[in-house]
Structure prediction request, 244 residues.
Amino acid sequence: MRLYKAMDYQEMSRKAAHVISAQVILKPDCVLGLATGSSPIGTYKQLIQWHQKGELDFSQVKTANLDEYKGLTRDNDQSYYYFMYHNFFKDINIDMANTNIPDGTNPDSAAECARYDKVVSDLGGVDLQLLGLGRNGHIGFNEPGDAFAKGTHCINLQPSTIDANKRFFASIDDVPKQAYTMGIKTIMQAKKILLVVSGEDKAKALYDCICGPITPQVPGSILQLHSDVTVVADAAALSLFGDC
Ligand code: GLP
Prediction:
């Protein structure tokens, strides 16, 4: 595991964008696994800037997003489809037909999860998976539990996750209670993983992921078993690392 320390969110975003940009330059038709949330927004902004300067070409890139709220339509401004389109896809030259996100409007969880697993496997797997980290240590929407979930599954969001994500919704009652998410097996099968973490409220989760025991109670701790993980974190997120 490589750990890069950044001063702040902006520097973290730039360093993370460098890792993604290297992947796209070295393999123009790569499969990027993408994430939502506030953590990767700066990374997407930086990639957009480089693209607009003519330095990055996404025309052959394919993407597979980690997760989507169950029940939200694409045009709902809190859906992850909407997030990806407005924070990244609309400003780069990606072919939207090459982008993939679980379909939150499919009420049949088993069918949607099987469909999405097939999408990822038909892509030939993920070359570089970008991840944020939940305050409870979740990756994607793989919440703490008694076992690591393998493939794409429908998850009941934990009260702490609903609480953390309520800032994006008009009220806590509007936050969906379920989501479709890639499983831990799919995430771990990515050839490379890039974890971006910012802020003091993530310090404990990051410390537990990297320095703690590998346990499904801290889903991100499984990353310790992956052979090619790059963590880019800012000083605040690394504030507990004195004795790691
Ligand atoms: C959400 C997403 C995760 C994300 C996490 C952290 O629940 N499903 O993929 O990493 O929250 O979000 P943020 O970066 O906004 O703190």
Notes: Residues 35-39, 66-67, 132-134, 140-141, 161, 165 surround GLP (CB under 6 Å).
